Amino acid sequence: MGWILTAMMALGSCSAKLYQVRIDTVWRTPVGREVRWAMPRGVVRFHEDGTIGLVKFREGVNAALELAKFGGEVRARSNRRDAGKVVDGREDTWWSPDPRDPIEDWMIELDLGKAILARKIKLTFADTVVSGDTLKPFERFKVYISNGTGRDWNVPEYRLLGRTEEINRERCIEYIVRYEEAGDTTEAGETLKKVLNLDLVRFVRIMIEAPNTSGRPALAEVEVGAVGDNIAFLTNENGGNIKAYINEDKAPNIFDGHAGRGWEFQPVPDVEWCRHPTNPNIASCFEWDLGATFWVDRMYLDFGRQSGVYASVGLDNITRMPSGYILMVSDGSPRPGGPLDWPPGNKYDYKLLADVENRSMPYQLHYFHEFKPMKVRHIFFRTAHGFMTWGRGEAHLFEMQIFGEGYPAEATFESGPVGLAWLTGGKGDRLVTTLMWKADQPSYPETRVEVQTRTGDVVDTVWTYYKKIGKRLKEVTREEYLRLPERLRHKEFKDIKPGTGWSDWSSLYPQEGPFLSPSPCRYVQFRVKLVTERRDVAPTFKGLWIDVTEPLVKEAIGSLEPREVSEVDSALGYTYKIWTEARPQDKGFENVLIRGPVVEDTVKLNGRPLDPSSVDFGRDSLSVKLPRLIKGDSLEIWFRARVSKNRTTFRAFLGLSGVWQEVRPAEPGATSVLIPVLAETERLVWNLRVTPLITPNGDG
C-alpha cells in the first residue's frame, strides 16, 4: 500500500498548513521527491483503512498451509492436477492416484520450502461416496520425512517416520516427529539416548504400498504441526543483521531455512577466551540483531547429525560435536558503563540465557531451550568449554530458530530526511509549529505509540553497494564493489542521510502539541515506535500530521552572558542577546519565551526594567510581552536564574499569535552555562539544611 504526503487544510492566522505524514517503505512527496522509511517490514501490517498494526506470531501452526510463502510446492507422480488439494485446508477435497498408473507412482510429497521445526505430521483421509465412487483411507502406506540435506542438493535423504503394519481403516492418523541422539551404553548394555519430540522437516513423502481392498485411496489433508512462526526467518526483511567474527559470510546461513548450510566455528577452551578476550583469532562468536524486539520463549539450535551426508560442507559423518556454548540475549538496553566494541558481547545489556556444556555421552547436536517470555532484540552466541588445545577441527551451527507467541514488543519506523520544501513546493527554511498523531492504544500505557523528531539543514549523499551471494545481498565498500565481477554486482543505491549540525532526537510527543525540535529548518526526520508490554495486544497507528508555515523572521540567533559562573545554585543575573534578520514579507514577533531555571525577579529589556504586567513566570520559563512588533532588530533580556548543573542550556523562542520560532545559538554552546567548580569540588550537595528533630524518648 503506497502512502504519500498530502496537504490537508489551511489553519491559523499565520497561514499554517497541516500536512499528513504517511508511512511506507518508499513514497513520493507532492513535488516528486522520494523518501524512504526504515522499518521491520516482516512484522508490519498495513490495513485497508490506512492504519498500521503489527503481525501476531503464532504457536502450533500448520506449516503445510503456508508452504507457498517459502517457495514450496506439492508434487505427485500420479494425478498431479489434484496434488495441491492436500494443503488447501479443506477436508471435502482430496488427492487420489490414478488407478491406471503403476503402484510405484502412487506417491505424493510436500516441499515446505524451508526446514520447519515440526512436532507432528497428521494425515486426514477421505471417507465418502461421490457419484458412486467410494473414497477410503489409504490401507497400506509409508510416511517419510527429510530436513532437506543429502549427498546432493537435489537428492535429500529421507528417514521413515511411520508405516502401516496392518490394514488401516482410520480416517485420521498422527505421527510424532522425534529426534534421538544415542551414544555409549549402560552397565546393563542399554544404549544411552536423548530424545527431542521435534525435528527439522522440509519434505514429507507419503507412498502407497498396495491398492486398497475396499474403495479408492484418497488423501484429504496433510498437516505439518510446527512449533510456531519462526522469528529468525524474518531477520533480513526486518532490517536485521548478523556479525560473526570468523567466517562472517556464512553466518546468515543459520537463519536461511536450509538445514545443510551452516556457519563454521572453532571450539575454543574457556581458558583461551578468558586469557585473550581481545584476540580475534579465537572469537568464535556472533552478534545477531533481529531487526525488532520480540517476546521470545523458545530457541532451537541444530549442529548437524551424528550420521549422514551434508553436500554443502562435504562431510560424510557429522561427529564434530560442539563442546558447549554460551547464549545471551538483550532487548537493546544500553550496557552499564557504555557500549564496548571489543571484546564481543559488550554492546548491550545482555542477560545469560544458556550455558551449555556438551561433555557427557551421548553428545548432543540438537538443543531446544524453553524459558519464560523475554524481550529479545539482540542475541550473542559464543563457543565455550572447548578442547584443552584450541584448533582441533571445526564444528557447524546449521540452523537456529526462534519462537515466541504474540505481538512484537517493539517495532521502530524511522524516516529519511524529509525536506519541508518538498511538502510545500516552496524554497528555503520552513517553520514547523505543531505536531499531532493518532493511534489506538488499548491498555495504555502497557501498549503505546512513541513519536520523536529531529531537524537539520545539511544532508549528505550516500551510496550503498551490494554483492550478490546467491539470493542474498551483502553490503560491501565501494572498493570491494569495483573489484567484483559484473555478475556479482547488484545495482548501487543512492540516498541521503543527516549531515552536520542536526539536533538530537526530541523528547516524546503528546498526541497534540508544539513541535519540539529546533525550527525553522530545512529537513525533519520522524521516528515512530509501536510498543507493547503485553503479548496479546498491540497498538495501531493511525497517522501523523505537522503544521508548516513561513518563519516569523528569516533568521534569529542568540547568545547568553555570562557563559561561565563559579557559584552553584545562586540567583545570578544573565543577559540573553537576540539578533534577527527579516524579509519584507516576514510577520515579525511580539513575544519572547526563555526556557531555563529562571528566578521570579525583575526582568529588563535592553537595560530597562519591564512592567511586571508584561512578564509571566512559569515553571522553568519566562515569557515577555514586547511593547511593539519587531522584525529585523536586536534585543537584550536580563533576568536571574539558578544554575545547578554543568552545561545548562537556555532556549529562547519568538512568538506571534500562538506561533513560536526557536532562536538558534549563535555558535555551539552560545546559550549554555558552564560551572567549572563542579568538576573541581567534592561538595556534591548544595543548600542542604538539617532541622533538629526532638523525639519523645530523647533519642533525637
Strand residues, percent: over 45%
CATH A-level architecture of the largest domain: Sandwich
Q: Name the CATH homologous superfamily of the largest domain.
A: Galactose-binding domain-like
The total number of structural domains is: 5
Describe what you observe in this structure.
This protein is mainly beta and 700 residues long. The chain has five domains: 6-56 and 411-451 and 501-549, Sandwich (Jelly Rolls), CATH 2.60.120; 63-226, Jelly Rolls (Sandwich), CATH 2.60.120.260; 231-405, Sandwich (Jelly Rolls); 459-498, no CATH class; 555-680, Immunoglobulin-like. The chain is built from four helices and 49 strands. Strands 7, 8, 11, 12, 13, 16 and 18 form a seven-stranded antiparallel sheet that branches. Strands 3, 4, 27, 28, 30 and 35 form a six-stranded antiparallel sheet that branches. Strands 19, 21, 22, 23, 24 and 26 form a six-stranded antiparallel sheet that branches. The relative contact order is 0.12.
